[in-house]
Amino acid sequence: MAKLWCLLSIITLLQVSKFVISRREVTTPPLPILPLPSSSQLKWQERELIMFLHFGVNTFTDSEWGTGHENPAIFNPVGLNASQWVDVAAEAGFSLMILTAKHHDGFCLWPSKYTDHSVASSPWKNGRGDVVQELVIAARAHEGIDVGLYLSPWDRHDKRYGHDLQYNEYYLAQLQELLNK
Under the phi-then-psi rule, with left for phi > 0, alpha for psi from -120 to 50, and beta for the rest, what region is 92? Predict the structure, then answer.
């Protein structure tokens, strides 16, 4: 009988313990500190790897800095394969590829209607090439890769640079071209 009483006491104690554990008070977590990031800001913060592609006329002059006086005829990337770029980026774990659409040398990797210092004046694809468009098309065909574009605010080629109103109008026109690609 003593053994039965001991066993019943242990079972009762276990039941009471479970009951007590299940009735523990849960502390409410603190409210987030405002402002909260937007979904695009949160996506940016969660990216682990971002690829920056710096490609332009200085790729063909073997110099780090372009001057703005490069002849567009030197730009002729006959082996350019944007799909290969995207495949390599995806295999390496990148989620965003940022292309320098125009660096400070002023050379545009798309056929800008606002300057002759672009792929339209190069022999590549008989002046009908568009590096920006090729990258965008290749990335759209590959899930998980986004494209960003860098448009340099400094343009060593354009004579309007330094004249705020005229240059800002020019710059905004090129920005609109890119945003509509």
Answer: alpha
Domain map of the chain by residue range? 41-179
Chain CA centroid to CA 10, Å: 62
Distance CA 18, CA 31 (A): 30
Which class would CATH give 41-179?
alpha beta
pLDDT digits (tens, 9 = 90+) for 39-64: 999 998 899 899 999 999 999 998 88
Distance in angstroms (rounded) separating the CA atoms of residues 106 and 121: 13
pLDDT single digits (tens) 68-122: 999 999 999 999 999 999 999 999 999 999 999 999 999 999 999 999 999 999 9
* Total count of residues recorded for the chain: 181
Identify the helix (H) or strand (E) that includes residue 89: helix 82-92
